[in-house]
Structures are given as structure tokens and as C-alpha cells.
């Protein structure tokens, strides 16, 4: 019989590798895709008559418009603005010079370029891309955990499927998973001669807290309850991360009814080979 507090005490604060924080290859690709336009726009840094100079640049290189949104950390090429009770739609893949001038003037980009930048706009945009890419850490964190679990499944010698929906499981093997939502998608599914294993993975590092963790624990508790009555199916939950210490009550409620809930220390000790038959 495992002790919950002892089990929780072994949770890790981080699984982040060096590539977790910023995907520099993606940053460089994004900047390189508009490098010509950014370089041309750099000629306007410290311009004394930036509107006139921009018009001349646009007439020579209309594609300079497509790099305007990223200067405001906007990924989309279509930008919506409400100003003085009027609605504007700026499509930078086909806007004209007057639209660009209006947008850059009112948004503060002309002022930024002519009065505040000291370096080139390529360097500035690289910084913007770094900032935007930091938003991807949450997804990368989930991918890291999935990669770790996947490697342990491989090391254990099991064949497996990724991202498999409940309906697909039912269709493939004729099992009735009634009670588990049809749109539920398991991170991994392992099929042995006797049992189908639906596996969920996640990691919540640091000292965060919030409703997300509680909601996750409660939803998995429901799946655990429903799974107990399904012959030939087992639900596995592999989770870790010190943020759980701030949401441990709901986690314990799931721990108390789900035998197959494991942390990374148990994974590293080869628990999958011991419990999957």
C-alpha cells in the first residue's frame, strides 16, 4: 500500500531540457522569412521624415507591409481595429500604402522606428519572436512529459498507439467504454492479449496552482471510477510536478481510487513492465 504523502514528496520540480525555454530554430526561421523586408525597413530607423520615407520604400518594395504586424507582436496578417467608433480591417498581404501609413502612424510604429530604436529592425524582430515563442513553453512542457513516457513504453517493449479516441478504441477492439466521454483521447494506448490500457500523462512543474490542476484530477477520478467496471480495460495516469503540492486534495481523491497512478520515479524504476500484462 503506497502512502500518498510519501509518493507526492518524490515529485520533480522540472523536466525541462535546454530547448524548453526558447525554440531558437523557430525564431530564426520566422525572422529569415521576412529578412529582406525587415532589412529594408531598417533604413527608416531615426528617419527625420518617416512617413515620406516609408511611402518611397513601399513603392519600391510593397511586400514590406507583411512584416508590419510582427513589429507589434501580432502573428496574423489580418488585424482588426476600432478607432473613434469606426471599424478597420488591415490585411497586410494586400493593403495599400495609405492603409499602412495609417496603421503605423496610429499604432506608434512610426514613432518607435524614428525616435526610439537605435539598432536595426531585424534584431528588434528577433527579440519580439523570442518573446512570442516563450508562450509555447506550456505546450513544450506537455510534449516533454509525453516524450519521457513514450520512451519508457518503448524501453518496456510494448507496442502502442498515440492520441487514440475512445470511439476508435471501441471500434478497433469491440470493447464498450460506456461512461467515458466519446471525445476523450488517451495520450497512449497499449493493447495486450488480455487488456487495453488507456494512458494519460501530464506534468505541472514549479509552484503553480489553480483550477486547472483540480479540474484535471477530478476528471481523471471520474474516468477511474468508470473504468473499474469495464472488463478488459485499465486506466493509467502518469503525472508529476511540484505544482501538485498546491492541489493535493483533489489529487489524493484520485490517488485513493486509482491503483494505476504513477510518478516519474516509479516510471524510472520500471513500473510499466511490472503492471502491464
What does this structure look like?
The protein is an alpha/beta fold and 277 residues long. Helices cover 47% and strands 15% of the residues. The chain has helices spanning 4-9, 24-32, 35-41, 50-60, 97-107, 109-116, 121-133, 137-155, 166-173, 211-227, 248-257, 264-268, 271-275, and strands at residues 78-83, 86-91, 161-165, 185-191, 196-203, 233-240, 261-262. Strands 3-4-5-6-7 form a five-stranded mixed β-sheet. Strands 1-2 form a two-stranded antiparallel sheet. α2 (24-32) crosses α7 (121-133), α4 (50-60) runs antiparallel to α5 (97-107) and α10 runs parallel beside α11. The longest helix has 19 residues, at 137-155. 26% of the residues are buried.
Please render the helix and strand layout as text:
Layout (H helix, E strand, L loop, with lengths): L3 H6 L14 H9 L2 H7 L8 H11 L17 E6 L2 E6 L5 H11 L1 H8 L4 H13 L3 H19 L5 E5 H8 L11 E7 L4 E8 L7 H17 L5 E8 L7 H10 L3 E2 L1 H5 L2 H5 L2
Parallel strand pairs: 5-6, 6-7
Antiparallel strand pairs: 1-2, 3-4, 4-5
User: Which geometry do the CA atoms define?
Assistant: elongated
Biggest sheet, open or closed, and with what strands and sense? 5 strands, mixed
Strand order of the largest sheet: 3-4-5-6-7
Class per helix and strand makeup:
alpha/beta
If you compute it from the alpha carbons, what radius of gyration comes out, rounded to the nearest whole angstrom?
A: 26 Å
The quaternary structure here is single chain
Show unreliable segments: none
Helix content: 40-55%
Number of helices: 13
The proportion of residues in beta strands is 15-25%
Count of distinct strands: 7
Amino acid at each position: 500500500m503506497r502512502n500518498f504523502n510519501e509518493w507526492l514528496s518524490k515529485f520533480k520540480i522540472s523536466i525541462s531540457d535546454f530547448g524548453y525555454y526558447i525554440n531558437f530554430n523557430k525564431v530564426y526561421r520566422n525572422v529569415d522569412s521576412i529578412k529582406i523586408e525587415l532589412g529594408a525597413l531598417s533604413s527608416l530607423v531615426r528617419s527625420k521624415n518617416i512617413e515620406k520615407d516609408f511611402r518611397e520604400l513601399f513603392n519600391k518594395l510593397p511586400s514590406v507591409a507583411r512584416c508590419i504586424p510582427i513589429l507589434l507582436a501580432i502573428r496574423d496578417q489580418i488585424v482588426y481595429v476600432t478607432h473613434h467608433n469606426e471599424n478597420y480591417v488591415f490585411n497586410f498581404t494586400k493593403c495599400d500604402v495609405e492603409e499602412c501609413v495609417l496603421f503605423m502612424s496610429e499604432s506608434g510604429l512610426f514613432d518607435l522606428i524614428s525616435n526610439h530604436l537605435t539598432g536595426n529592425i531585424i534584431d528588434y524582430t528577433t527579440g519580439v519572436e523570442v518573446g512570442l515563442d516563450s508562450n509555447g513553453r506550456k505546450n513544450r512542457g506537455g510534449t516533454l512529459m509525453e516524450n519521457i513516457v513514450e520512451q519508457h513504453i518503448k524501453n518496456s517493449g510494448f507496442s502502442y498507439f498515440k492520441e487514440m479516441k475512445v470511439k476508435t478504441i471501441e471500434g478497433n477492439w469491440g470493447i464498450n467504454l460506456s461512461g467515458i466521454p466519446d471525445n476523450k483521447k488517451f495520450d497512449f494506448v497499449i493493447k495486450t492479449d488480455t487488456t487495453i490500457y488507456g494512458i494519460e500523462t501530464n506534468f505541472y512543474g514549479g509552484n503553480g496552482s489553480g483550477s486547472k490542476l483540480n479540474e484535471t484530477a477530478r476528471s481523471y477520478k471520474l474516468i477511474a471510477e468508470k473504468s473499474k467496471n469495464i472488463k478488459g480495460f485499465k486506466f493509467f495516469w502518469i503525472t508529476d510536478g511540484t505544482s501538485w503540492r498546491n492541489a493535493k486534495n483533489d489529487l489524493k481523491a484520485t490517488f485513493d481510487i486509482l491503483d494505476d497512478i504513477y510518478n516519474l520515479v516509479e516510471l524510472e524504476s520500471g513500473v510499466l513492465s511490472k503492471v502491464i500484462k
